[in-house]
Amino acid sequence: MEFRDNKAIYLQIAEYVCEHILLGKWQADQKIPSVREMAVELEVNPNTVMRTYELLQNKNIINNKRGIGFFIADDAIGNVKAYRKGQFMDDELPSVFRNIYLLGIGFDELQSRYNTFVKETFNA
Questions:
Q1: Quick one: pLDDT at residue 60?
Q2: Is the pLDDT of residue 124 over 80?
Q3: Are 67 and 31 in contact (CB under 8 A)?
Q4: Are 18 and 35 in the same domain?
Q5: Is the pLDDT of residue 105 over 70?
Q6: Core-most of 40, 43, 58, 89, by most CB within 10 Å?
Q7: Do the strands 62-65 and 69-72 form a parallel or antiparallel pair, or are they unpaired?
Q8: 25/17 Cα distance (integer angstroms)
């Protein structure tokens, strides 16, 4: 995984976990890698992964079954979407809107590009 400088690593790992859930790679009640396994896989400090897992537990995306490990929560998909949607709306959308306004991009052009993106990316 390539980490970006503009965002905390533990948040980038949270995005990684959330993406695995949204793409269906990790299902409800499925065990996920342990803190140590994830740290080795991503080449980060285990404390960083633990911080990620604590965040995801607080958002009800994963659960810790003491002595067994971490598992995807039953309602993880809905909770991931709510968490990620809030982040997107608060952090990224204002910048997107600013660029749309400054560049004079119309909503028709955006809709067309969005439809093409979805078709090429998810319906291939």
A1: 97
A2: no
A3: no
A4: yes
A5: yes
A6: 40
A7: antiparallel
A8: 10
Q: Which domain holds residue 50?
A: 9-76
- Are 84 and 37 part of one and the same domain? no
Q: Which two tokens stand for residue 102?
A: 């400054």
51 and 84, same domain (yes or no): no
Q: How many residues does the chain have?
A: 124
Q: Are 80 and 22 in contact (CB under 8 A)?
A: yes
What pTM does this model have? 0.81
Cα atoms found within 13 Å of the Cα of residue 111, Cβ hemisphere only: 3
Residue 56, domain CATH:
1.10.10.10
| Per-residue pLDDT at 90 exceeds 70 | yes
- Could you list the beta-strand ranges (E) of the chain: 62-65, 69-72
